[in-house]
Amino acid sequence: MSSITPHYRTITQLLQNRSFSIDEYQREYKWDKKNVEELISDLQTKFSQDYQPGHLPKNASEYSDYFLGSIIVTRRADKSYLVDGQQRATSITLLLIYLYRQATARKLKVAPRIEPLIFSDNYGVLNFNLDISERLDVIQALFAGNDYNASGKNESVQNILDRYRDIESSELADELGDGFETFIYWLLTNVGLIEIATETDEHAYSIFETMNDRGKPLSPVDMMKAYLLGGIDDHDERTSANTTWKKTISELISWGSEPNAERDSVFVKAWLRSRYAESIRDGKAGATDKDWELIGTAFHRWIRDNSKRIGAGTSTENRKLILDEIPFFARSYTQILDAAKAYTPGWESVFYNAHNDFTWQPTVLLAALSPLDDSDTAAKKMNAVATYLDIWLMRRTVNYIRVGYSSVSYTMWGLCRDIRDKSLTELVDVLKQKLHAGDADFDGSQVRGRLGVTDLRMNQFSRRYIYHFLARITSYVDVESGKPDIFDKYVDRKVKNSFDIEHIWADKYGRYDDDFDSRTDFDNARNNIGGLLLLPADVNRSYQDRPFDQKAPHYAKQNLLAASLTSSAYTHQPQFAQFVQREGLGFRAYDQFGLAEQLERRKLVLELAKRVWDPERLEAFRA
User: Fold this and answer.
1) Which is the most buried residue in 45, 123, 284, 575, by most CB within 10 A?
2) Closest to 614 (Cα-Cα) out of 430, 482, 437, 436
3) Angle at 615 between CA 37 and CA 467, to 5 degrees
4) CA angle 511, 515, 516 (to 5 degrees)
5) Residues 264, 270, 272, 275: is their CA dihedral positive or negative?
6) SS3 letters for 155-178?
7) pTM for the full model?
8) Does position 211 have pLDDT exceeding 60, yes or no?
9) Contact 536, 577 (CB under 8 A)
10) Helix residue ranges, H only, 53-179
11) CA 479 to CA 468: how far, in whole Å?
């Protein structure tokens, strides 16, 4: 195999004026939100170990390197094909597009250095580094900053768009602050991987099979198993424990419609962090990893070093972990996964948080549990914590406060620590106290200078949360008016005619220029939550440019929140009218809908939010 050549490549060396294709039969781009969040978190953590306030981009040359693994590339007809590594290559490209757009907006000198890593200019023809025909449109749209509709597109295209939105939501540029440009230089020159280049497909796939089948190294879960089983002296007891272990791990991996060989590892991290992490790394340069981080990177070693803390080490203790504690938490973990996937009565808040892509949810929910809890108590504890997270998340997002993976890691560690070993009553008391002491609610955040729901406007950060917000208040009005709860239908974007955000005002500044001093003022008001609805996409498209008086008859035929703008809701929907009277809410019909009317509607939306996300919901879970 003399034609096989390994090279270490920095990101710049790998992507500079190069393009890669993949064979049609390769699997789709599969990375999920958690994969992207962990990549960004790992990069940010490694960078922060060297970066200090005041450092300039040139200081990055002295920082530590970061290794991203390996890719396998074969040459065919003057083109490079990725045999292994398309998941990482695609994710890195999405990160580079985000960094490029942010650097360009900030007019940073590094921006031109990023551009040729995303595409090359061949006599005026742009060749993107990922030369995969079905994905070019979405990559080009993201690079140009254009909207892109992935409805009806394949899984890879939809995932590419979703993962880019996840990267945007991380607000990495803002988190890095003055170190943003230095981070980019570090990423381009100090982060790299091994490119294994071959001249033939035969060699490429031989290496791929060897790396992924024969001689495959033990996973951290395998090493954890070896440690725990190895400490059980009696042969029969060890055999019994091994049977239970295999059953537990098999059920984790095979859960759902798509088995996932890494789900056991994800579970173990969630379990150990939730129950046993007592420390977390300081956020300053030179700080060392603590429990929270070490569990995330090498939990098999952490278990050996902290065996007494988790109740391991002796034959009896190891058996108890394998036979009792691990199966209990694994069952609870899959309950969370079930509720996150399917809208289930009693478990709604788990579904809400999953729809908001809050990936810390399983870890935090497990933290409230004890292996001694019966099934009813465990369910109530998990749903109480999920309800708390639902309220906490939405209070923050309406105030434009970050809730991304890295942004709230420290807060989630503290929450896990504070809710361990509590009775159900104690748990509810702790959660309510935390909500009472929080620095943000739907009226705003005084310490952050935020104005809450009435100032909530749709933008790059808030769009996904506004969609969720509208679905929740729409569903609440439905249910309180005697209609079924169809929140899951409102947020299902996979159906043909999914719901979408509707602007009550058409994008016609001239119609409203008497109310506004500038186009910017109009745009801000048009995007305010008081001027938005949730409607089926075909209705949205059909009437979006019409004035309010022409839209209103169509609103009357839609969900009650939309219909409440018209008189028909009050004359033809008696249970809705009863709900309005019972709650004393400021619903009313409008003949016209200008700025004054929208200001009224903002106050109504605020009152609805306070009812939907009322902390008193937690009282339902007391023992």
Assistant:
1) 45
2) 436
3) 45
4) 95
5) negative
6) HHHHHHHHHHHHHHHHCHHHHHHH
7) 0.84
8) no
9) no
10) 86-105, 111-118, 133-144, 155-170, 172-176
11) 16
Q: Which residues are paired to 126 by β-bridges?
A: 121
Token representation of residue 47: 């960078």
d(CA 183, CA 173): 9
Question: Distance between CA 502 and CA 74 in Å, rounded?
Answer: 48
- What does the block give as tokens for 217? 């190294």
For residue 128, the SS3 value is: strand
* Structure tokens that stand for 484 in this block: 């079924």
- Residue 378 three-state SS: helix
- 26: confidence class by pLDDT, cuts 50, 70, 90: low
Tokens linked to 479: 């249910």
Kindly write down the DSSP assignment for every residue of 498-519, as one continuous string: -EEEEESS-S-HHHHTTT-SSH
Pairing of strands 125-128, 20-21: unpaired
Residue 422: which residues within 8 A CB-CB, separation 6 or more?
Answer: 368, 430
CA distance 185 to 189: 6
d(CA 135, CA 547): 37
Beta bridge partners of 533: 502
pLDDT at 209: 55
Give the residue, 181 or 282, on which the prediction is more confident.
Answer: 181
Cβ contacts of 393 within 8 Å, gap of 6 or more: 353, 356, 358, 403
Contact 97, 118 (CB under 8 A): yes
Q: What are φ and ψ of residue 195, in 5° steps? A: -100, 115
Q: Nearest Cα to 115, choosing from 125, 136, 129?
A: 129
**Which amino acid does the sequence have at 222?**
D
CA pair distance 206, 123, nearest whole angstrom = 37
CB neighbourhood size of 337 (10 A): 18
Q: How far apart are the two ends of the chain, measured CA to CA in Å?
A: 68
Structure tokens at 26: 């390769």
| Torsion angle defined by CA atoms of residues 353, 356, 362 and 365, in that order, rounded to the nearest 10 degrees | -30
**Residue 292: alpha-carbon gap to chain centroid:** 19
- Helix, coil or strand: residue 197: strand
Give the separation between CA 607 and CA 566, rounded to whole angstroms: 19
Nearest to 485 by CA among 422, 435, 414, 560: 560
pLDDT in tens, 442-483: 999 999 999 999 999 998 778 999 999 999 999 999 999 999
The answer to whether the beta carbons of residues 399 and 596 sit under 8 Å apart is no
Sign of the dihedral through C-alpha 612, 614, 615, 617: negative
Sheet harboring 5-10: ordered strands across? 5-10, 191-198, 66-76, 79-84, 20-21
Q: How far apart, in Å, are the Cα atoms of 437 and each of 375, 392, 407, 432?
A: 31, 11, 19, 9
Half-sphere exposure of 479 (CA within 13 A, CB side): 12
Task: Give CA–CA dist 86/438, Å, rounded.
Answer: 42
